[in-house]
Amino acid sequence: MDDDRKKRKDFWDDLFGNWDIDFNDVFEEMRRMMDEMMKDPSKFADRPFVYGYSMKVGPDGRPMIKSFGNQPGVKGDATREPLTDVMEKDDDIVITMEVPGVEKEDIDVEVAERSVRVSANGAQRYYKEVQLPNSVDTSSTKATYKNGVLSITVKKKEKGKKVRVE
Asked: How far is Cα 78 from Cα 74, in angstroms, rounded to an integer?
């Protein structure tokens, strides 16, 4: 292992400690994709190419790494997967998606008890289905779209109530 790679590995090890995720694998995959793209850029010339990783700390304190964007190496459909964040609050679940380049009339939101599906067909095309951490009241859904950011808020279903035995 050359010195640069060892320094990078030491940096990530110091920063993230002993988490089970090997960040070097993520960066190696990104490097491989960039190398492939530089060898033959014509493979990606017929469509926008967006691909990346988002990272956040999960409820258990461990990192969660998710990929987003077009799937690498797939020709044809220029549908993007938007960068998405799901935040669970006391009574609500808030889903935030980045969907720039479309008008609000072009966005379709479909809410089921345990999932939300979003598709947008404007100047840019997006599609994403999100599994929700709790059951929700579909009739309580509110969605807003401003400056390329879609925010969807749904109320959690009421959990069972304790009944006093008399």
From this structure: 9
